[in-house]
Amino acid sequence: MNSSLEFEKRDGWNKRDGWNRPPVITPEGDGELLEVAMGPHHPSTHGVFRMDVTLDGERVVHLKPVFGYLHRNHEKIAEGTTYLASMPYTDRLDYFCSLSNNWAYALAVEKLVGQEVPERAQYIRVLLAELTRIQNHASSVGFLIQDMGASGTPLMYAFKEREKILDLFEQLTGSRMMCNYMRFGGCRVDMSSAWLDAARKVVAELPAFADEFEALLTSNEILMARTQGVGILPPELAVSAGVTGPMLRASGVNYDIRKVDHYGIYDRFNFRVPLGDHWDVYDRFMIRLLEMRESIKIAEQALKDMPAGPIMDPKARIRNFRPKPGEAYGRIEAPKGELGFYLISDGSPNPYRYRVRPPSLINLTILEDMCLGQNVADVVLILGSVDIVLGEVDR
């Protein structure tokens, strides 16, 4: 089976034969450059985030992202507390995707101590991660369309389905967003038969939602005019900058950690990796819609094949948890890209070093490259297509 899902070619804007960074623009004649600070409370900057933009008329000639307003000292706090006590702190990184955060951290600790995970817990993790990806991508698309100036209709369509998924999370974990569910060696509580029935019902309705969402948006003339050819990110730049996730795949790079590492049990699931061909905002929008469909397929397979059995390895240690001296890096394909945790143990109850590799921060580093030469009105759209969460950017 071909592992990639290619787009149909659109007329124009195909830069695959070569791409050069837009030249630095200087004002002509007696023109003056205008410096504008967008944020930190601009309604379209996705949190307490600022962009210092220099304009020649309405063209962007320089852009500097400024963050740090939400810094909470996450990594240093983790080095002063036990391994398990850091699990609920991971919920606050990408607060749209707490269960994915839990899994990445649990995976790093499990690598550090050589911990096994029961098969049922592996299926549960995959199911919850893909439901998380679906609600994240739907919300991201809704926010992008709202950034474009549309009414709240697309966002409300997205939130309608997101509410159903969050209801499932709440029934299982006790919380809609800060789930604190994964444990080293498994999961905190098991899924009941009633919960699985409810999940099957929600997942069964998702393809119809995806059809309706795409029909509402993909052929909209205003959306295509505002996003096609805007914010181009060539694959060479994306790779050299360490960009991952939907951003990277929208630039045509076939790289998905679920396929590369086969962490958990992803090698048992049949799914494809959508790829973009034009590297612009429209491709990043479409990639998320297509990835939602692939996540629905994975969720259906996980629910169908969910085995019985324990959800925690009986050998897992909770009390007096002291990993032997060593180091480990655990990473997953989070909805926004590669989310990794690097841990160093010195044999004490707390990690000697705790480091987060946040996809939102890494993906933001090429914001200026995508905005140079663009109209100032397109800057907010380009930022929205990156899909950032400030809790993860600042940590």
Set down the secondary structure blueprint:
Elements: E1 4-5, E2 34-38, E3 50-56, E4 59-66, H1 74-79, H2 87-90, H3 98-113, H4 119-147, H5 153-173, E5 182-183, E6 186-187, H6 193-217, H7 221-227, H8 235-240, H9 246-250, H10 257-260, E7 273-274, H11 281-305, E8 326-334, E9 337-345, E10 353-357, H12 359-364, H13 367-371, H14 376-386, H15 390-394
Parallel strand pairs: 1-7
Antiparallel strand pairs: 2-3, 3-4, 5-6, 8-9, 9-10
Helix pairs in contact: 3-4, 4-5, 4-11, 4-14, 5-6, 6-11
Helix percentage range: 40-55%
Order of helices and strands: EEEEHHHHHEEHHHHHEHEEEHHHH
Regions with little confidence, pLDDT below 50 for 5+ residues: 1-23
Strand-residue proportion: 5-15%
Care to describe what's here?
This protein is of the alpha+beta class and 395 residues long. It has helices at residues 74-79, 87-90, 98-113, 119-147, 153-173, 193-217, 221-227, 235-240, 246-250, 257-260, 281-305, 359-364, 367-371, 376-386, 390-394, and strands at residues 4-5, 34-38, 50-56, 59-66, 182-183, 186-187, 273-274, 326-334, 337-345, 353-357. It has a 3-stranded antiparallel β-sheet. Strand 9 and strand 10 (353-357) form a beta hairpin. Mean pLDDT is 86; it is low at 1-23.
